[in-house]
Design brief:
Elements: E1 3-5, H1 14-23, E2 28-29, H2 35-38, E3 41-46, H3 50-59, H4 63-71, E4 76-80, H5 81-84, E5 87-90, E6 103-109, E7 119-127, E8 143-148, E9 150-151, H6 160-163, E10 166-172, E11 175-183, E12 186-189, H7 197-209, H8 212-215, E13 237-246, E14 252-255, H9 279-287, H10 297-306, E15 311-316, H11 329-340, E16 345-348, E17 354-355, E18 361-362, H12 364-374, E19 378-381, H13 383-394, H14 404-412, E20 417-421, E21 423-428, E22 442-443, E23 463-470, E24 475-480, H15 481-491, E25 495-498, H16 512-521, E26 526-528, H17 535-545, E27 549-552, H18 554-557, H19 563-572
Parallel strand pairs: 1-2, 1-3, 3-4, 4-12, 5-6, 13-15, 13-27, 15-16, 16-19, 19-20, 20-25, 25-26, 26-27
Antiparallel strand pairs: 6-9, 7-8, 7-10, 10-11, 11-12, 13-14, 17-18, 21-23, 22-23, 23-24
Helix pairs in contact: 10-11, 11-12, 12-14, 13-15, 17-19
Bound molecules: ligand 1PR.
């Protein structure tokens, strides 16, 4: 069988390549229009944005040959944008670039009136006709990973012709949309099988192993009404985060500290002890001041994948130092992690314009592209996001189109751009404070999370606002967390990773005031981060703030709490999560 993969030039296609390799399927890449003739099966893993994908296909001379390939009756499997290009058009394309027109329906956007958009996470998928033999490995009711802003609505009454193609549906909020389409030689899914853990790998394998007779001749689906249920099937995501940096020997290690200090504390010198006086003193003296080493990034990532993490994040925490693309050891880490992990991988640190030692400049888009090609699914932007919003505000509230957030979201879709925020509390007296953040003050008397500040005399604890920082908390900027969150949403970010310098590593629980504030200020999904100390903290943050996902580092690395333990606590509290 001549299996080919199609890459239009901007999508992250490495994850699919890794999945096929893991499953033992050999493939080649379509590199010229002639390759379509050699292909007997084709997969188009279109990650990114509809207009970029169609543009990319047209400029490479692949659009018409792809249309002809599909018309020839040979098996086609499109993933995400690879499914959406089958439709007539998409609301994502302002210039009204047409799709391939195979499916008589249009792609439009989700409404964000009552839910976060993009639709991001593991949602349950239901076969329209579970008795059909063309299930193609899609398990009825299974959770698959979705990440998209636009979708094809399921409308059997108003578009019966389009409904013939609908193989399975998913509900987000009160909207029912096509999760997979199937008819004749065409199969497509809106979710990412290559990022859907074992369930996704099984599905990919099932399609590739299906006999030619069914892979090229799937019957139309009967028209079945599908009214929305009271509650959708989107689960809360649990994310394991690895802060990565070089230790003093130059090896990349996962590290973790509290309040962003990742070095071991040196022992306090006493008048009676010498460094070598006891064994413990000897160890302390040797590790004091060293970068805390909690393991190798790829080994830890694999461990979290097998123990059921819904997503992983790898943050290069010393990228504020010079980090040329040419010599970027994180790329090798991402490449190796992506070969072992089949859930979404976010990479952060150093996503900005940079210059190699030989003087070669790289834009943030190029840096992100290098990570996407290595297997990252999302990039996380920290310091540069703060500068971009400062610039936007100075420019009358308009972006100049040049920031990393804007260029990356244009090319890869907003769902690929996460902004990581590192806020810190600034204490003020609410009776005398007359600054710009009056409307964002949290009063100590009505705070939902206990204030952890140590020094009550200098921190009157009467009220505070949350200030943004850059360079891993080393520098504070004149910007509040609400200004930053709303600014990055406007510039095109698809998700916010919300840390708290005050809570990081404390194990005291998430800061519900901070998370609630940001959650209300934006319509994109928010990841709650910093402070998790036990499984119940996850239950509390979901119940109190309604965030879509929660992240922890220290408790997972030190194996104090397991991911399944967290999920069990959530299930007990009636919060839906993905099983292993
Ligand atoms: O500014 O775009 O180069 O990105 C740098 C990235 O590195 C940012 O995402 C920033 O948050 C991160 N970072 C920088 N310095 C540190 C540090 O720790 N010294 N890590 C750092 C931030 C916070 C979370 C942590 C949670 C959960 N670490 O990543 O995982 O607080 O921890 P917990 O569960 O143990 O409480 P740029």
């Amino acid at each position: 069988m001549g299996l080919f993969l199609l890459d239009y030039g901007a999508g992250n296609v490495q994850s699919l390549a890794n999945s096929l390799e893991r499953l033992g399927h050999k493939f080649e890449w379509i590199s010229s229009p002639d390759d379509f003739d050699r292909a007997t099966s084709l997969i188009f893993p279109g990650v990114g944005a509809f207009p970029t994908a169609v543009d990319g296909l047209i400029s490479r001379g692949l659009f018409e040959p792809l249309k002809a390939y599909i018309a020839s009756g040979k098996p086609y499997f499109g993933i995400c944008i690879g499914m959406q290009v089958l439709f007539q058009s998409s609301a994502e394309s302002e210039s009204s670039l047409p799709g391939l027109g195979v499916i008589p329906a249009r792609i439009s956007s989700f409404s964000n009136a009552t839910k976060s958009v993009p639709h991001m996470g593991w949602n349950s998928t239901h076969l329209i006709d579970p008795s059909s033999k063309s299930a193609s490995g899609v398990s009825d009711g299974a959770h698959y990973y979705f990440v998209h802003t636009f979708r094809a609505a399921y409308e059997p009454e108003t578009n019966p012709e389009g409904a013939e193609w609908v193989h399975s549906v998913t509900q987000y909020g009160q909207e029912i949309f096509m999760a997979s389409v199937r008819k004749g030689n065409v199969f497509g899914c809106q979710f990412h099988p290559e990022k859907s853990g074992e369930a996704g790998l099984r599905m990919l394998d099932a399609w590739l192993r299906e006999p030619e007779s069914s892979r090229a001749h799937a019957p139309p689906t009967p028209r079945i009404p599908w009214p929305p249920r009271e509650k959708d099937g989107l689960t809360k995501r649990i994310i394991a985060c690895m802060d990565v940096r070089a230790n003093d020997q130059g090896d990349l290690v996962v590290t973790k500290g509290d309040q962003y200090d990742v070095r071991e504390k040196a022992p306090e010198p006493t008048s009676t002890s010498t460094p070598a006086s006891t064994e413990s003193n000897t160890v302390a003296a040797h590790t004091g001041g060293a970068v805390r080493n909690l393991g190798k990034p790829v080994a830890l990532a694999s461990r979290y994948f097998t123990s059921g993490a819904d997503e992983l994040a790898l943050l290069n925490i010393t990228s504020f130092r010079h980090s040329p693309l040419l010599d970027q050891p994180m790329i090798a880490v991402v490449r190796a992690a992506a070969q072992a992990v089949f859930v979404p991988l976010t990479i952060g640190g150093g996503i900005r314009d940079t210059v190699d030692p030989d003087g070669t400049p790289h834009t943030a888009l190029e840096v992100a592209g290098a990570y996407f090609r290595a297997g990252a699914d999302k990039v996380s932007i920290g310091s540069e996001a703060v500068y971009a919003v400062e610039k936007m505000l100075a420019n009358g509230g308009k972006g100049d189109g040049k920031s990393g957030i804007e260029t990356i979201s244009w090319a890869y879709g907003r769902q690929a751009v996460v902004v990581s925020i590192d806020p810190r509390k600034v204490y003020v007296d609410p009776e005398t404070y007359d600054g710009p953040y009056k409307g964002e003050l949290i009063l100590a008397s009505s705070a939902r999370s206990k204030d952890l500040s140590k020094d009550a005399s200098t921190n009157p604890k009467k009220a505070w606002w949350y200030q943004c920082t850059v360079s891993g908390g080393r520098e504070s900027r004149p910007l509040s967390v609400v200004q930053l969150a709303q600014g990055v949403e406007q510039l095109g970010a698809g998700e916010i990773l919300l840390n708290s310098i005050d809570r990081d590593g404390t194990g005291a629980g998430f800061d519900h005031d901070l998370i609630g504030l940001v959650r209300k200020a934006v319509t994109i999904p928010v990841v709650a981060s910093s402070g998790a100390g036990k499984a119940e903290h996850f239950v509390e943050v979901f119940e109190e703030t309604g965030v879509e996902s929660a992240l922890a580092a220290g408790i997972f690395h030190r194996e104090e709490v397991g991911i399944q333990e967290v999920k069990e606590a959530l299930r007990k509290a009636g919060i839906e999560v993905r099983g292993l």
